[in-house]
Amino acid sequence: MNFLNMAKNIESELVDIRRDIHQNPELGFDLFRTSQKVKDFLKVEGIEFYEVAQTGICAIIRGNGKKTVALRADMDALPLQDKKVCDYSSKINGKMHACGHDAHITILLGAARILNNMRDELKGNVKLFFEPAEETTGGSPLMIKEGVLEHPNVDAVIGLHVEEWLEAGTVGLKRDIAYAASNPFTIKIIGKGGHGASPHVTIDPIVIASNVIVALQSIVSREIPPTDPAVITVGSIHGGTAQNIIPEDVTISGIIRTMKSEHREYIEIRLVQVVEGIVKAMRGKCEIEIEESYPCLHNNDELSDMFDNKSKELIGESNVYNLDKPTMGVESFAYFSMEKPSLFYFLGSGNKEKGIINPAHGSLFDIDERCLSIGVAMQCTLAYEFLLKS
User: Fold this and answer.
1) What's the structural domain count of the chain?
2) Are residues 143 and 161 in the same domain?
3) Which residues are in the Peptidase M20 dimerisation domain (predicted)?
4) How far apart are CA 236 and CA 317, in angstroms?
5) Which of 16, 257, 329, 333: disulfide with 231, CB 3.0–4.6 Å?
6) CATH code at 131?
7) pLDDT number for residue 389
8) CA-to-CA separations, 159 to 174, 219, 277, in angstroms, rounded
9) 238 is annotated as contributing to ligand binding
10) 303 and 366: one domain?
């Protein structure tokens, strides 16, 4: 089954779809145009679907068999100004597809067409998950809650992400844990305000916050094994209105990233202990909120083996990379990997010769569109192969 040739036959249409979505980015769950474009495509192809998670979509291609594999694409853009100068740069001020979700949608639509056209040859069903709000709270937990993994029951979920640090024409996979878990936190430190000339009659929350920020870094550097990745980032601190006024309170916010569940639990406990201890010692009070956010993304061993074998057959062994290190970034696909055997791999989209090297979440981000047909072929190959195996 030559899925690469099939994908290249629709390459020009894939480029058109991707550029249209790129020019019209939408955020979070407010994906009304994007969602409608997907639904219009599915209607033309005769693929059944239903709406889920507000503006998300679950579609299904029914083959001949009991097994079901799901392919997933995220759909939302970022609140960022597109500074690329090209024919397809964003038309929407302050919004941009700076993470490649426009490519992910396009690839899943291309795979949908090819797989639907050969549905009689499929040894099972293919579900198509179009997920909203990946860049915010993640649409996948809501999709799961609303039953996308049921009726029929999903046996495996496969996803991908374009990566500019991999050249177009290549793919990469990190076995086992591929993405970190995250816990955003907010700390409000309450002191006693007053005049800057009389600090002795105040309880300075800025000084307390400074001690807290420094101490938090020692949790990772001195309490987590140096061989295990973990990060505590303080991303913002807000307090005070003037140079000569000691404020009443200061708010610190940041995020914890870990690769192991035991470290995740430990750091949450120690963050509270460290903050409360310092604040109490310095006569202040505090309010601490730690959110339970994205879990770690785990790649299934059997699916990883299948990826390794089939990707080498499709694009050549020299173009397939086994990655040694996970990323400390987070990915809402992780929620699917907590429920079902899952595979999430990286699709090369960079091109150094063309200057397509700018990082995701940046205002100059772009992709080498040659990756679209490879992504389609990869998704079709993996879905077909999974269903083929009894």
Assistant:
1) 2
2) yes
3) 185-276
4) 45
5) 257
6) 3.40.630.10
7) 86
8) 13, 34, 43
9) no
10) yes
Same domain, residue pair 309 and 351: yes
Residue type at position 214: V
Instruction: Report pLDDT digits (tens) over 333-351.
Output: 999 999 999 999 999 999 9
Measured in whole angstroms, the distance separating CA 321 from the mean position of its chain's CA atoms is 20
Query: Is 135 assigned to a binding site?
Result: yes
Check which CATH number belongs to the domain holding 248 and give it.
Answer: 3.30.70.360
Residues 6+ apart with CB under 8 A from 330: 179, 180, 181, 182, 257, 293, 294, 297
Sheet with strand 181-190: strands edge to edge = 230-238, 249-258, 181-190, 285-290
Sign of CA dihedral 96, 100, 104, 109: positive
Q: Among positive and negative, which fits the CA dihedral 213, 217, 223, 229?
A: positive
263 is in an annotated binding site: no
Name the strand (E) or helix (H) holding 144: helix 140-145
Under 8 Å between Cβ of 126 and 71: yes
Among 247, 270, 290, residue at a domain's last position: 290
pLDDT (average), residues 31-60? 98
**How many residues make up the chain in this entry?**
390
361 among the known binding-site residues? Answer: yes
Range of the domain at 239: 181-290
* Phi, psi values for residue 225, rounded to 5°: -55, 135
Out of 239, 267, 290, pick the residue that ends a domain. Answer: 290
